Amino acid sequence: MLVSGNEILQKAHKENYGVGAFNFVNYEMLSTIFEAADEKKSPIIVQASEGAIKYLGIDMAVGMVKILANRYPHIPVALHLDHGTSYESCVKAIRAGFTSVMIDASHHPFLENLQETKRVVEVAHCAGVSVEAELGRLMGIEDNISVDEKDACLVNPKEAEEFVKESKVDFLAPAIGTSHGAFKFKGEPKLDFERLIEVKRLTNIPLVLHGASAIPNEVREAFLQSGGDLKGSKGVPFEFLQEAIKGGINKINTDTDLRIAFMSEVRRVANEDKTQFDLRKFFAPAKDFMRKVIAERMEILGSAGKI
Ligand SMILES: [Zn+2]
After folding, report:
1. 210 C-alpha to ligand 1 centroid (Å)
2. What is the rounded distance in angstroms from the CA atom of residue 5 to the CA atom of residue 45?
3. Which residues bind dihydroxyacetone phosphate (predicted)?
4. Of 152, 164, 240, 287, which sits most exposed with the smallest number of CB within 10 A?
């Protein structure tokens, strides 16, 4: 059943577990996320970036989610706009049927970010739609980074408190050291858990971890064995995800892991049978592997069995 982001994340916030927010760009990814949720009895957030919306068409993105939400009425699902870049983009998504939106004005100074978020919250809450905002800039923490530099790019807990109070935003993504893509850390993976705990204490709302793909060994190996290359890539280790959830993270954005899993199977089939051109022969095993990765993630985040 299609519900607001708040309905899913308030429960996770109160019961202290994490819910995967999985990105999709086509029917294969989206249906696989639902299948894994059905298998694991887990609530889900499915999210589309502006790029994915452009690729699919907003009516198709919403239409597919609605059809699958009806097919699996027992699964609470929220449809979330990932990294909305403007007020207009958020309004468009709300009008089209999204039940949760992110307004990402985190590259602007604090006050501008706050004003833009406030505007989105006002219109979204009228429609029963939840809003996520981001504070700080996403980047890895390097060992040699100075305290000043760290303060400049990571979230400031006092600011987070003021931001949430003023904007009435539903969830906040505090920058604590993750980054997007497959290359998250130059040295050892490192996240600022103390900062996270302080943000949670001062805001007391669901928090979001962006750039939270783990690139587990099984996924990495499958990709390499199929002939892919993941030079120097590093994900967020499972222990870190669990530590982050203990510290107050409730929404865990996961995209890269799904892409790598899916494409490693597509490439394997392509290599093994050069005469093959039936799309289903590529997509069925790709979906199987992706479903396994998502199901395992639901166990790790603690959302399995929560419906
Ligand atoms: Zn993100």
Report:
1. 4
2. 7
3. 181, 211-213, 253-256
4. 152
**Cα–Cα–Cα angle for 237, 239, 245, rounded to 5 degrees:** 110
Residues 6+ apart with CB under 8 A from 87: 103, 116, 119, 120, 123
Quote the pLDDT of residue 179. Answer: 84
Residue 176: CB atoms within 10 A of its CB come to: 25
134 a known binding residue? Answer: yes
Q: Which amino acid is at 230?
A: L
Residues 258 and 286 sit within 8 Å (Cβ to Cβ): no
Residue 178: inside a domain: yes
Q: Which two tokens stand for residue 100?
A: 């949760």
d(CA 298, CA 19): 7
Predicted TM-score (pTM) of this structure: 0.95
Q: Which residues surround ligand 1, an ion (CB under 5 A)?
A: 210
For the stretch 39-65, pLDDT in tens is: 999 999 999 999 999 999 999 999 999
Q: What percent of the chain has pLDDT over 90?
A: 88
Structure tokens at 195: 């900062």
Q: Which residues constitute the domain of residue 278?
A: 5-301
Instruction: Report how far ligand 1's centroid is from the alpha carbon of 64 (Å).
Output: 22
Residue 229 annotated in active site: no
Q: Is residue 307 part of a domain?
A: no
pLDDT category, 244, cuts 50, 70, 90? very high
The answer to whether 191 and 240 have CB atoms below 8 angstroms apart is yes
* CATH code, domain carrying 160: 3.20.20.70
Q: Is residue 306 in a domain?
A: no
Residue 277 alpha carbon to ligand 1 centre in Å: 34
